[in-house]
Amino acid sequence: MLIRAFLSHYQRHPFQLAALVLMIVLATMLWTGVTVLTDQARSSLAQNEETVAARAHIVRTDSQPVGVEDFVRLRKTGVCVAPWLEVKRPAPEGQVIGVDPMSMACFGRSAPIQDAASLDGTPFMDIGDALRVSQEGYDSQLYLIAPRDDIELPQGYALRAFSLAPPTGELADSFLLNLDALSLLVLLITGLLIRSVYRLGLVQREASFELLYRFGVLPRQIRQLLVLELVVLTAVGVPPGLWLGASLAEALGTGFGQALGSLFDLTLYAESFGSLPWRAAVVMVALVLTVCLLEWVFPQPRQPAMVSAYARLGGGALLLAGALGVVLATELVWVFAGTALVFAGVGLLTPPLLAAVEERRSVRSGATASVADPLRRWRARELSVMFRQLALPVVALQFSIAAVLAVHALVTTFESTFEQWLGQRLAADFYIEVPQGGDSATAARRLNALEGLGTWHLVAHGKAQVRPEEAGTGADPLTADLMALTPITDLVSDWALLSSAERSWRELASGAVMVNEQLARRHDVEVGSPLELTIAGTRMRTNVVGIYADYGRPVAEVLLHADTLPAAFTPRSESFSVNKGELSRDVIHDRLADTWGAPDLQVRDNASIRELASQIFDQTFLLTRAISALTLVLAAVALLIMIWVFFTTRVWYFRLLGVWGLQGHQVRRQLRLLSVRLTLTITAAALPLGIWLTWVLVNRINPLAFGWSLPMDLYPVFWLELGLMAGAAGLLVAHLMRRQLERDANGERP
Amino acid sequence: MAVVVGLSALGAGLSGCDDPSGESGFAGLAESGGQAEASAFLQPKPGTRLVFPDDWGPHPQHRIEWWYFTANLTTPEGRPLGVQWTQFRQALQPRPAAKAPPSPATWPMDSAWMAHGAISFNGDHWFEEKVARGDIGHAGASADPFRVWLDDWELAPISESDAWHLQVQGDNWDYDLTLSNTGNITAHGDGGFSAKSSSGEGSMYFSLAHLNVTGTVTVAGRTQAVSGKGWFDREWSSQFLKAGQQGWDWFGLHLEDGQKLMAFRLREGDSTFSSGSWVNADGDVESLQEDDLTLSPTAWKESARGRVPVVWQLRVSGRGVDLRVKASPGEHWNAGLVSYWESPVAVSGSHDGKGYMELTGYADQAP
């Protein structure tokens, strides 16, 4: 009897019970999906990293090509080495790489492939099969790769740097850090969504609880029943949410990926979802119980604290303190703390501010009586009431839309940055390493004499000691990588520099230097800063004329013109980057091979390297797009459910419109205007927060964590898409409300 | 007998090539009259005889074979130290004797090799695994001169001597041993054909059970001179474990009176198939049949990878042999592509002695 009376509210409002369960299901689904996809993106990135990670390859010091007999000789002396056969098959099939997984066993975790399933020809296949592909008439090149560049070799062999693409470790780490931060935000949003729906039900049930109390049921018994009810709801809602989230993530990460794969020749490193992610289940059960039971620890008054004057004051203070913290923080933890304060501040400020704006519109409508539209005034007042009473869900929705904005900006920014950076670093058609003992100066002269050749430059690599002059003579110099260029051509002069002086490349040719962002940020070096460089024992003073982005490595780097180098400098390695112009690859190869007496000179095709690296990393971006899509879809569904639930509490008021004499279609129009304005206002309120969150991710978290920032790009078209989605959700809610109004002719007065 | 651990997994899994053996079980024997007989691989049968020196080298017509060595050694302080080395060959394609091997330049994948090296000392166990594709040259074996190698691990004759040199380097451990044979070749079963089930499947199997071993072992940061007794096995076949057979328990024991005992049992559900050889001090061999042998576990150990029988009772009827065989303290899992137990043992009871025990099919079983 007691339980029946306790649950009578849900008998009268079954939709509220269904909405609460549905919200638990959806919240669990969102969190599970994001968790699974984030884990998958992490695993995919790790595999991508291993695939393109810098390693070493072994060459013969007599400049002869390496072959299977060299592989055998090296293995029998205990050297960990594996064959790597690149077969330059043109599109659409594309390049393949032949490997021997067995000899890669000694690479351990740094092996480019970890299982036989990867030998599917995209791009890896067994070396025997790859050799057969090459025999169809494609150029191929055998490398003997080693896991590290510090291994001992028998006489007659030397180690050279080897990688598929510029190193991307830091870019990947940064991406994962940001993804983790967004996952936490998703957890916060799901908590807010659940709490708001639960609280809505509780407020409406207060009267029935009072009645029970009058019949002798103790408050303690009511609380026990509420706990029991919550446990049952959690048990009912979490498992399907868990299953749906894992299935959706699988569909997005695998099915969606495979669909795209068939269209764009991409495949995902999809993991098996053999078991449900129980970690996500534990987190969700804890979250649901915590946010709902918080109601008793910190009961909220009917008039939410979030709209009181104190809340506004406190919200403003939190926002200011948080923003200052984020801007001034020198450690990552304070950026996160500041971000949390800003979110808390925004959460406290948004409802009263929106309510105040609508209130003012209402007053203004009333004041200008000649043009007064009582319905406009009614709508403004109705919205004002909603923003006050529905503070929690409004904030939850604002946060979720902000998170969607940030995810989208993050993924798009990373993708474009990666593509642009790859293009910058692999601008030339070919990359040719000067063989051991090869004379680069003679080769440069002979390249100059080649008619029809495109632009080219020679890069000498080495080390330099760097001391910013502002650090004082007592400061320890810093060891930086050195890159010396000659000549300066459009291969580098088109680089997008982070900051630069006037005619920076001309200045560089005259003895100035450029530094990478890592060096600039960590040592407060700016354009115009004087630097003291020590190269091969020779000390020189110069100044910085440009700062360039360098996302792959943590080390400092200095770029200068080769003419600036002291005579004593001996490069660790040298390479040519060459645009073929009107000549064929073979002509260039033969000219250089002849110069150096190295018939098997290795000419690396930058386009195929770039294509391969892009192909491999596109797999990861595909996953992150899937995360973004999941968040967006679920935010939209949540938005729909929430507003529908809230509007049901206002049915009685909407019915008054009919009492005032409005026709049915006029009532429906008012409902449409009201709901669309509500959803659009929340979306508009989420925009600044989303933009700010994106800024924090790319401009505050990255520089503190990794020493470099990403470009901050905005995507207004996506804002428009979100706005359209919000408008559509508003229209849908209005449609549902219309049905409810028609069905429930005697709307209950709240 | 020794192990044939996961070579099917090695071949089919790592190479991505088709394994003609299919899923016929773990390193064992196909069912009688099954696909192995119908395949192009050569299958040993009763009556097949050993041929020397050819049988020291590889058998490309057979699917699987291995070279196996264990030694019960002693350090200068008198502490026991166990050493194991095994090299396996798994053929993915049979190759007739008359056919030349494929050119290494084609990176062929007709066979795969795997080597295991392990040391057991003071309750600790060190293990390393190496794999290689066959016919390239960095792994292989030859009959005359007898040599087996994979990368820089090698068993090879010492010039102008009958002794062999075994060199194995692991991660922070290695051993460098000289093996001197003082006895005859022990042909197991029917002149070298060793039955592995009552329905007639089997393998060719012979041993050198009288090896004197000296050399150095580096482990735990210390290089020590060692000496002791060794046991060498050669075995090849084309049939894997019969479907339903879960693994085997194998013992190679040096008894103090100079006699040797090799015994094994293959497990299939509640039933077993046992066989063995008794080698007296003069080197005479007596084949032991199922009725002659009793192998019973008497104590089990809950280990990190599963529940394993670590104390055994071995009885040989008609000889008054009743042995208690106990594994060395510690866990002795060779945790490679497939995990199996390989430990030195101490022998007591009717005879004292020492030896090695190999247990397969116990890893990751619920206790």
From TrEMBL, chain B:
- Record domain AttH: where: 64-238
* Domain of life where this protein originates: Bacteria
Which SUPFAM superfamilies does the UniProt record give? AttH-like
Tell me the Pfam families matching this sequence. CrtC, Lipocalin_9
Protein's recorded name: Carotenoid 1,2-hydratase
Name the species this protein comes from.
Answer: Vreelandella halophila
